[in-house]
Amino acid sequence: MSEVLSQHEIDALLSAISSGDMEVEEIRSQEEERRVKVYDFKRALRFSKDQLRNLTRIHEQFARVLTTHFSAQLRTYVQFTVNTVEQLPYDEFIHSIPNMTLINLVNLQPLDGKVIFEVNPNIAYAMLDRLLGGPGEGMNKIENLTEIETRILTQLFKRAFVQYGAAWESITELEAEYDDLEINPQFLQLVSPNETVILVSIYVTVGEVSGTLNVCLPFVTLEPILPKLSSHFWMQQDKRKSINDQASEHMQTQLMSSVVDLKAVLGQTDLSFGELLHLEVGDCLSLKTRTSDPVELFVDDRKMFKARPGLNGKHLALQVIQRIEEE
C-alpha cells in the first residue's frame, strides 16, 4: 500500500470489510470530501485568530475603563462585559442594528477612517434618565429626541469614548477624537458594503436595564497596525501598564475632578433657644475667637486647613497657612 492510513480509516476499513457493505475506495472518497471546506469570497476573513484574541484583550480593558467611568458619572451599578469579537462584512453589520439607534463616530488619530460606537437606545435613555435625577429607567423614543437630550447624550458619550485610545497604549499610541452623533444607520456609508469589519459586542448593565454596545472597526482603518496585533509583538512590550494600574489612574483622574464644598468658619458661640428667638437685626454676638486667630476651613464638614482672611483685589479671600493633620 503506497499511502499510510489514519486510525479512522483503519477502523472504517475493518468495519466495512467485515460487513461487506462498503469498499475501501469508497471510504477514501468520503474522507476526501470531508476535507473540503466552503469559502465565501464575499465574506473574506482578513483577521487571524491571534489578532482576534488581542483585539478581545484590548476591548476587555476598554470595558473596565467604561465601567469605572459610567459608575462615577451615573452613581449607580454599571457593568460593561465583552460578549463577542467577530469579523463580518460591513453591510451585514449595518443590517444587524436597529433602524433608529444612537451611532457615535470617533476618529482614531493618526489612523484613517472612523470607528463606530453603536449604543442601544434603551441603555442610552437609562443613562439619560439617571443623569437627570431619575431612577434610570430605559425606554425607546429615539424619534422624539429633543435638542437638550441630544446635547446631554453627546457630551456623555464624548467624555466616555475619547478614552478609547488609552486602551491601545500597549499596542500603539492612538488619540480618539469624538466626531458626531447619528441616528439612522442607513445613511452611514463609511466603507464599501463588502468591506471586512471587526464587530465587538459589549453587554451593558445600568441598574435594572441591560442592552448592548457595538464597536465597529473597519479593516482599512486597522490595516496599518495589524502587524502589532500579533502575540509576538504583544509580549515584546517591556513598558506596558497593567489593567489594574490603568484603572487606578482613571479612578484618580475622576476623583481629582470631583467637586467638594469648602466653607470657612469665622467663629462660634453658644446661645440658648430663647436668646435665638429674640435675635433682631443689629444685634452683636460675642464669638469665642479673637480677630487675630486664624479661620478654620472645612472640606465637606471635615476640618482640613487654617487660613487668614484678607482681600485679593476687590474680592474677599482666604490665605491657607496650615494643614490640620487628622487625629
UniProtKB/TrEMBL annotation:
Q: Which residues form the Flagellar motor switch protein FliN-like C-terminal domain?
A: 254-324
For this UniProt entry, which segments traverse the membrane?
A: none
Could you tell me the keywords of this UniProt record? Answer: Bacterial flagellum, Cell membrane, Cell projection, Chemotaxis, Cilium, Flagellar rotation, Flagellum, Membrane
Q: Name one GO biological process term.
A: bacterial-type flagellum-dependent swarming motility
Query: Which topology term describes how it sits in the membrane?
Result: Peripheral membrane protein
Gene Ontology cellular-component terms for this entry are: bacterial-type flagellum basal body; plasma membrane
GO MF entry, a single one: cytoskeletal motor activity
Matching entries from Pfam families are given as: FliM (PF02154), FliMN_C (PF01052)
Q: Where in the cell is it found?
A: Bacterial flagellum basal body; Cell membrane
Describe the family membership recorded for this protein in Swiss-Prot or TrEMBL. Answer: Belongs to the FliM family.
- State the name under which the record lists this protein: Flagellar motor switch protein FliM
From which organism does this entry originate?
A: Exiguobacterium indicum
The organism's taxonomy opens as:
Bacteria, Bacillati, Bacillota, Bacilli, Bacillales
